[in-house]
Give the backbone structure.
Amino acid sequence: MAEYLVMTREDEHAHASQSPKAMSELIEESAAYADELRHAGRLADRGRLRPSKEGKRVRREVDRLEVSDGPFAEEGKTLGGYYWVQARSVEEATELAARAPALPTDEVDVRPLMKGVVPADKEAKPGKIFACAVLGSTRTEEAWVEVMDRIDEETRGRFPEASFLGGLRLEPPKRGRRIATRGERRATFDGPFLESKEVIGGLLLLRMTSIDEAVRWAGETRFVVHGTLEIRELWRT
């Protein structure tokens, strides 16, 4: 079976307006959904990201490092969580994604993996885990692919051995699907989705003592020369 990343693009304003009880129920439903996938042998990994207002974006402009504080809500949406799933086809992966718990104004993206590795016990050790989303901003998908290829080539194997917990690279947006509410119904749309200023091309998982340590590491990498790293802490499950 092939591998896919199911990503929830959360409407953070809608989430912030929910009652504590409603949010607790949504979190419980998400955990139950992940357990269902795991028991079916379809789940390789999952993660729920802390609010984007707690995150950082890092990129380099010539010889100057730019570090931006969150929130980061492109078109009102931000990456809220992910499920790394196995499916026979993008259609089946989309069917799995359609069951992911979400608010009506959230969107769910499905993207095939180009490659990826993650240990089954990534949360076995104590400490903070940070998800680093590899973002690219271009006018066309062809240019975006070139950026991701360049990042891949110049960063391959150059990860902090003691901190690296895995990662993945995604296929281009045109091979993906998006589940979103349009009018009164939930509908599925084919990619590409380049209306966002920054389009995700991969995800790195690092164990670091703090987000500042993650920012310092990011600032020394080629990720931020050609693209942007959005760094967000994961909630512990």
User: Anything to note?
Assistant: The first helix runs from residue 12 to 16. The chain has a mean pLDDT of 94.
